[in-house]
Amino acid sequence: MIGKIEGTGAYAPVQIWDNNRLAELVDTNDEWIRERTGIVKRHVAEEGETTALIAAKAAEAALENAGVSAEEIDLIIVATTSPGNLVPNTACEVQHLIGASHATCFDLNGACTGFIFALNTAQAYLAQGIYSNALIVGAECLSNLVDWTDRSTCILFGDGAGAAVLRAVEEGYYAQMTHSMGSKGSVLTCASRNKRLPGARMDSGAQDPKTFLHMDGGEVFKFAVSRMPEAIKELLRQEQTAAEEIDYFILHQANARIVSAVAKKLGLDLDRFPMNITEYGNTSSASIPILLDELNQAGKLKRGMKLVLAGFGGGLSYGASLIVW
User: Residue 290: exposed, middle, or buried by beta-carbon count in 10 A (0-12, 13-18, 19+)?
Assistant: First the structure.
């Protein structure tokens, strides 16, 4: 058995902050951000737009695209680093919001590689015949974790969700390659907000600066442009597939320069590496499924196409999946 992607969906908050909006908050400008990241704007959740809510909207779009009812779903996995609640988990909240009453639900935190990990996990359950229909969602409200006075991080991140519906079928194709490097975890961190500052009163409201996203941009860049091509090459060698056979490389959208560097290292034209970072910024676990849905909705994905999905992120972690559409 294999999990075939039957449908995709995505949702991004209506509120948009462009680079000029950020220039009102920190010492930056549109040209500086565009040149270094490729980002022009990002979507920012408004009050009441929780991670679960935007995940549910993406999930509903994916179900409609797949022609599958919520009652048919028996597994929901939500990849997120920015849940609105620790308990209940976001997947259970999504289950309630969409009416998927028969589903087993859990969250997975793989940072920006989260959707790849969730896809792998769902595939394992479907291959074993444990479940028949899975809904996987990458959803983030990173605006809740960003220090909007920190120029090095606030320009990068945005909010959004993407989803895919998988159905177990007898014939299909799926391969994956993932790795983690915990020794490098300190270059991208965000501490728990469940701990008070030492000596702080219970009602003090003091916010530990470590509970915002912190990143060593240079180290993350070097990690991404070296490890992501390595993972893709390793996967293609394993599957005895040439890079030239891949129709699209759907990469995590963190920085346009990273995507360009990966294409160059693989010796391939950039037009096989679609990007939407201009519109969304880095949406972590949501970036790959949002881009996948855009390609699907635009009719660019044809039956039999070979796609590589690849991501990297906190942990540090990285990986790639090879699917046939």
Answer: buried
- Which of 19, 133, 252, 296 does the annotation list as catalytic? 252
Catalytic, 112? Answer yes
* H helices present in 29-165, as ranges: 30-37, 51-66, 90-98, 114-127, 151-154
What is the amino acid identity at position 240? Q
Query: Residue 249's closest CA among 49, 238, 233, 192?
Result: 233
What is the pLDDT confidence band of residue 187, given thresholds at 50, 70 and 90?
Answer: confident
Assess contact for 285 and 84: CB atoms under 8 A: no
CA nearest to 55, candidates 89, 115, 102, 10: 10
Q: Which of 19, 65, 133, 282 is catalytic?
A: 282
pLDDT beyond 60 at 205? no
Please report, for residues 13, 55, 199, 234, 288, the alpha-carbon distance to residue 160 in angstroms, rounded to integers and kept in the order given. Answer: 7, 8, 36, 30, 11
Question: Average of pLDDT values for 46-54?
Answer: 96
Domains belonging to the chain, first-starting first, are 2-171 (3.40.47.10), 175-193+209-324 (3.40.47.10)
What's the pTM?
Answer: 0.95
Token output for 36:
């270094």
What number of H helices and E strands is found in the chain?
10, 13
Tell me the HSE value of 43 on the side-chain side, using a 13 A CA sphere.
Answer: 24
Q: Would you give the distance in Å from CA 242 to the centre of its chain?
A: 26
Give the integer Cα–Cα distance in Å for 180 and 116: 13
179 is catalytic: no
Cβ atoms of 224 and 312 closer than 8 Å: yes
**Given 112, 141, 154, 190, the catalytic residue:** 112
Question: In the chain, pLDDT over 70 holds for what percent of residues?
Answer: 96
- Respond yes or no: is residue 214 known to be catalytic: no
Token pair for 187: 């270059």
In whole angstroms, give the CA distance from residue 126 to residue 94.
20
